[in-house]
Amino acid sequence: MKLQLLQTASLRQLVLSSFVLALIPVAVLMWQSHRALTGISQQAVEQASNSAASVRRMEQMQNQVVDIERAIRQFAVLKTEALARLAQNHLTSYQQLLPQVCQSLTESSLCQQQELTLQQLHQSFTQQSAEQLEPLLQQLRQQQSRLSQQIWQQLERQLAAQQRDVASAQQQLTWQTILLVFITLLLVIWGSRRITSPVTMLERMIRAIGRQQAFPEARVQGPKELTELGEQLRVLAGRLQQLESLRLILLRHASHELKTPLSSIREGCSLLTEQLVGPLTPQQQEVVTLLNASADRLSQLTEQLLDYNRLLQQAKPELKWHPARAMIEACVQDHTLALQQRGQAIQLNCQVEQLYTDGMLFRRILDNLINNAQAYGAENSEVRIDLQQHEQHWWLAVANKGHSIAPEQRERLFEPFQRGQSPRHDQVLGSGLGLSIVADCARLLGGKADIVDSPQADFCVRIRLPLPEELV
């Protein structure tokens, strides 16, 4: 029941309950510390009070011994009733203090001897002379000195025992602190896992949606808000998958179904252009020329759609070593005629001998970049192709003169079906897939495509490709 409540609790309730659970060991530690400090302080106060009382009684007894000796010696000389009563009073006071001191001592033999000496003095100080009483008085002084010594030793033992108790309490508090801190850490880890685990699951779901991977089957287990968000992401993933399937089906079928009638149209236009079915008037030839141009444009758009569809379906590139210059020159050769029609020349700067890449994806990048430079570049200008190694990457840059692109519009041009505002110069209406194909090919190769500033050109696309591990 408690586990179910934790699973259905809100994020706020889970955070608050985690904090409360983590504070319980801290509260226990504070209570234990307060109790231990209170016990030690009470013991110290009681011990100090007892020690002060013992020292005070010991000083009184020492003073009483001096008073007893003085009074007995004076009585032995003067023999007056007043001195006799004074000596009796001092002996009685000492006898009253002696049990109070002796009850705190561990040894009682010395107290018994002192008590016997006091009784002898009571009985004999009025009958004997000073010389006869001197041994008893000396014995009284010596026994009092030993009593004082025993009291000091007893106080020292009590102080040592108190120090041991304090050390034991400190050690106990230390172990309790370590244990409770460990318990607090476990509770914090448990509470954080209750929060981070569903967040990690949501991150996996979002990453799977973004990379068009298989959506995780496991459901989010945690706070109510995160559980609901996980279900919404699951619904969204299903919807996106349906849309992606419909888009691929539409691209595949539309492109494939267009090729057959398009081929027939181009063959018919070719027959009409060559006048194999009969002579044409100038007006008819102009119409056929427009049909040929439209058919060529439609064929190019269809090929781009098929190419984009194949690119989306390619999951993993086939990497191997290729001669860099030969691969670039072969691609440039295919575009020579279109470049010559606009008076454009290729200036190649290849500083890399071998390139570890997927040949088809790299060729797609070059084809689209050269075609883009030929269509949007200025007439009678140069198209620069640079391939060089920079730190841990290969940089492929294709630059041309023409129209520059504002920085805030550069990222948008790499999105599908997005075209710039600059006009084309090849009489073909672009589809907006060229730079998108370039960016997707670079991504499949582990790199990135960017539009960068170049001091020698108005428009420059730079492809950053990673070096293989053996060259890093």
TrEMBL record:
<feature type="coiled-coil region">
    <location>
        <begin position="137"/>
        <end position="172"/>
    </location>
</feature>
<keyword id="KW-0812">Transmembrane</keyword>
<keyword id="KW-0472">Membrane</keyword>
<feature type="domain" description="HAMP">
    <location>
        <begin position="193"/>
        <end position="245"/>
    </location>
</feature>
<dbReference type="InterPro" id="IPR036097">
    <property type="entry name" value="HisK_dim/P_sf"/>
</dbReference>
<keyword id="KW-0597">Phosphoprotein</keyword>
<dbReference type="InterPro" id="IPR050351">
    <property type="entry name" value="BphY/WalK/GraS-like"/>
</dbReference>
<dbReference type="GO" id="GO:0007234">
    <property type="term" value="P:osmosensory signaling via phosphorelay pathway"/>
</dbReference>
<keyword id="KW-0808">Transferase</keyword>
<dbReference type="GO" id="GO:0016020">
    <property type="term" value="C:membrane"/>
</dbReference>
<keyword id="KW-1133">Transmembrane helix</keyword>
<feature type="domain" description="Histidine kinase">
    <location>
        <begin position="253"/>
        <end position="469"/>
    </location>
</feature>
<dbReference type="InterPro" id="IPR003661">
    <property type="entry name" value="HisK_dim/P_dom"/>
</dbReference>
<dbReference type="InterPro" id="IPR036890">
    <property type="entry name" value="HATPase_C_sf"/>
</dbReference>
<dbReference type="InterPro" id="IPR003660">
    <property type="entry name" value="HAMP_dom"/>
</dbReference>
<dbReference type="GO" id="GO:0000156">
    <property type="term" value="F:phosphorelay response regulator activity"/>
</dbReference>
<dbReference type="Pfam" id="PF02518">
    <property type="entry name" value="HATPase_c"/>
</dbReference>
<dbReference type="InterPro" id="IPR003594">
    <property type="entry name" value="HATPase_dom"/>
</dbReference>
<dbReference type="GO" id="GO:0030295">
    <property type="term" value="F:protein kinase activator activity"/>
</dbReference>
<dbReference type="InterPro" id="IPR005467">
    <property type="entry name" value="His_kinase_dom"/>
</dbReference>
<dbReference type="Pfam" id="PF00512">
    <property type="entry name" value="HisKA"/>
</dbReference>
<dbReference type="GO" id="GO:0000155">
    <property type="term" value="F:phosphorelay sensor kinase activity"/>
</dbReference>
<keyword id="KW-0175">Coiled coil</keyword>
<keyword id="KW-0547">Nucleotide-binding</keyword>
<keyword id="KW-0418">Kinase</keyword>
<dbReference type="GO" id="GO:0005524">
    <property type="term" value="F:ATP binding"/>
</dbReference>
<keyword id="KW-0902">Two-component regulatory system</keyword>
<keyword id="KW-0067">ATP-binding</keyword>
<protein>
    <recommendedName>
        <fullName>histidine kinase</fullName>
        <ecNumber>2.7.13.3</ecNumber>
    </recommendedName>
</protein>
<feature type="transmembrane region" description="Helical">
    <location>
        <begin position="12"/>
        <end position="31"/>
    </location>
</feature>
